[in-house]
Specification:
The chain is 52% helix and 14% strand.
Length: 208
């Protein structure tokens, strides 16, 4: 299966480099390039890519606002130079499936695209510890009965997602097919009104 990717960055040279890297992967096809957030949203609605590689700082519409508009259209992988908490938290709350820094090596970038396309979440190792610490220090905000809409199996899947397990790892741990796991994850997100598995992990963690 070919993974269709849209690259959004306001620097033409950066876009060219990303396209070159992705073009070397036999299972990835770049279906478009956007130089600003508004163009990225318009192209994504037209091309329906599997993954959008999104910069944060862009003219007309920033990457976080664009990510919010792309909910339900494509999975967004934020790729930025700026390791700033405001960007990390803002992107994840907007529904981004992953957050990487531009100093990521080519092999890791390609693998990140594949992970996000499979429905898994990904956060750059350099910001993971800060993210965990920040949310661990926040008091729980949700009521326990909000989980009543989930079946026992869906709760098990949510707990696995919160531990950072991929769909294949969850399938192995809970002894079910990977396709079934993906369906359960989708149902959990839908029932809880969440946009990504990263948001699901945050939701679960905030509940203590």
């Amino acid at each position: 299966m070919t993974i269709r990717v849209l690259v959004a960055d306001d620097h033409a040279a950066v876009r060219a480099g990303i396209v070159l890297i992705l073009g070397g992967a036999g299972d990835i096809e770049v279906v478009g390039e956007a130089g600003d957030g508004e163009q990225a949203v318009a192209m994504a609605r037209q091309e329906r890519p599997d993954v959008v590689l999104m910069d944060v700082r862009m003219p007309r519409l920033d990457g976080i606002s664009a990510t919010r508009e792309l909910a339900g259209i494509a999975d967004v992988l934020i790729l930025t130079t700026f390791d700033i908490d405001e960007y990390v938290f803002g992107a994840l709350r907007a529904g981004a499936a992953g957050f990487l820094l531009k100093n990521t090596d080519a092999e890791s970038l390609v693998e990140a695209v594949r992970l996000v396309a499979r429905g898994d979440g990904l956060i750059s190792p350099s910001v993971t510890r800060r993210l965990i610490t920040a949310f661990a220090e926040r008091p729980p905000r949700r009521e326990p009965d909000e989980l009543d809409a989930l079946t026992p199996r869906e709760r098990e899947v949510l707990a696995c997602v919160a531990r950072g397990l991929s769909n294949s790892q969850i399938a192995k741990e809970l002894d079910m097919a990977e396709a079934t796991t993906k369906t359960h994850v989708s149902r959990v997100l839908g029932k809880l009104g969440l946009k990504s598995r990263v948001q699901a992990a945050i939701y679960y963690t905030e509940g203590g």
